[in-house]
Amino acid sequence: QSEFKKKQIAAFCVTTEHGENESAFWRQFDMENRHDLVQLTFDFDVLIKSLSDFAKKNNAKVYVSPCKYDYMSEEIKNNSKIQKVYKTIDEESFIELACLKRRAFKYENELRIFMYGEKLPIEGGRLNIPLKGKLVKTLKVCPNPSVEAFVSNDFVREMLQERLGIRVEKSHLYDEVSKFKFSRGK
Question: Is the pTM higher than 0.90?
Answer without folding.
Answer: no
